[in-house]
Design brief:
alpha/beta, globular, 4-stranded antiparallel β-sheet, about 240 residues
Length: about 240
Amino acid sequence: MPDAHYDNPRLAAIYDLGNGWSEDSDYYLALAGTASCRVLDIGCGTGIITHAIAAKGHTVVGADPSPGMLAVAHAKPHGSNIRWVESEAQSLGLGETFDLIMMTGHAFQTLVEDADIRAAAATMKRHLAPGGRLVFESRNPRIDWPARWAYATELDTPKGVVRETREYLGSADDCMTFDLHYAFSDGVDLVSHSVLRFADRDTIEALFHPEGLAVEKVHGDWDGSPFDTASSPEMIFHFRHA
């Protein structure tokens, strides 16, 4: 069952309200730097970071499998100045290379199977220029995410309040399943069903190793602190084209 966030225009339209600019956005924007470079944002979603990087004068391509998300991204100011590509990470083929490839918003964790991660790694290597950097994050599986994610909140939209509730459904192997329930003010209720993989550091690095991508560093949070297995909430991987 696909995540409704990726194929329901109504959920795509309110996505930014619960996933707006935050410290991870600052982190990725800083990676692009000030010197003009070519950036590929895989799993760009509604393009929050994509737009910010393009506004700095960089050449940016945003790729995402969701036409609903891309429609929101393209409709934003300056959206017509960015190339948007509808594609999954596993099958993306642009025939060009980039100085920086990023996969933000924990989009990497939607790659549930080893085969999907290997295919995405091959895609990234194929599109990475010599000396280029690949950066993405995955949540540390040692953290009790079900406890952190039990919440209910209200989103103020132009068409009324939407109540969002997360329901944890269970874990199997290193995957977690949960539902996000959305109750719209006009009486419409929608459910976004998600399965995310919480692979550990060694597993992720092993799946990227065949592509010859060298691990440069792994940060444990958006302040740039080193990764600590027991306490860091994030695993922010920096790979370099060998």
